[in-house]
Design brief:
Length: 233
């Protein structure tokens, strides 16, 4: 009975550790938001943690110090645990072109799972602007901005993301090396940035691996002791 209890306890501990690993990615997580470091005609480059980010498409301006991305409640929610930092910057868009709108593309240096995008000041009163994405997504957070107020971004009837002075964060569902979309409605001005789930610190992985090794060791000792007791009987 003692051996069985020890093994059951080890199994529960292992299951708990595995559950922790799963829930840390399934629920709100820290995001490595892109720090945009440079731009040229139709391009911008940056890094999101260890991931290189390249943007190609419409770019009116790469602003490194605007907006404030506050209040944080408008950008944090669902799987997103932190808002973009002001120093990370924003890519300014005007959109336009209707059905012939320019295709904008984000390319990651390697495949990323469930990347996110923060959208700021999309549309204005009487002028609903939108992002039409080629990838599935879900809205995670939304609300006013500190600069212009407004409301949350919403899902358009067309399936894209719409806003009448809309702000918020979306998650793309899947694993991608590229994201692409169009902005068919002109409005002066709105913008975005992107991010990826932060990579766990090496020390975190080391602690988890050490925990699994310890659990295996104690389970082995319990099995060995139980076998010896049976042989002695």
């Amino acid at each position: 009975m003692k051996l069985r209890s020890m093994l059951m306890g080890s199994a529960i501990a292992v299951a708990s550790a595995v559950s922790f690993l799963g829930t840390s990615s399934a629920h709100a997580a820290l995001i490595d938001w892109t720090f945009w470091s440079g731009s040229g005609p139709g391009t911008a480059v940056g890094t999101a943690g260890t991931v290189g980010v390249l943007y190609t498409g419409e770019i009116q301006l790469l602003d490194p110090n605007y907006p404030s991305w506050t209040p944080t409640s408008s950008y944090v929610g669902g799987v997103v645990g932190n808002a973009p930092p002001q120093a990370g910057g924003i890519i300014q868009l005007f959109g336009g072109g209707g059905a012939n709108a320019q295709v904008d593309t984000i390319t990651f240096s390697h495949a990323v799972t469930d990347p996110v995008m923060a959208i700021w000041s999309l549309g204005q009163g009487g002028d609903t602007a939108e992002f039409d994405f080629a990838q599935p997504y879900s809205i995670q957070a939304g609300g006013p901005s500190a600069e212009y107020g407004g409301t949350s971004i919403v899902v358009c009837l067309s399936g894209g993301v719409c806003g009448t002075e809309g702000n918020g964060t979306i998650e793309f569902l899947g694993t991608f090396t590229q994201l692409s979309w169009t902005n068919p409605v002109f409005e002066n001005w709105y913008g975005f940035t992107v991010g990826v789930a932060a990579t766990p610190l090496p020390s975190t992985w080391t602690m988890l691996i050490a925990g699994f090794i310890a659990l295996g060791f104690f389970a082995y000792r319990g099995t060995k002791k139980g076998s010896a007791a049976i042989a002695a009987a």
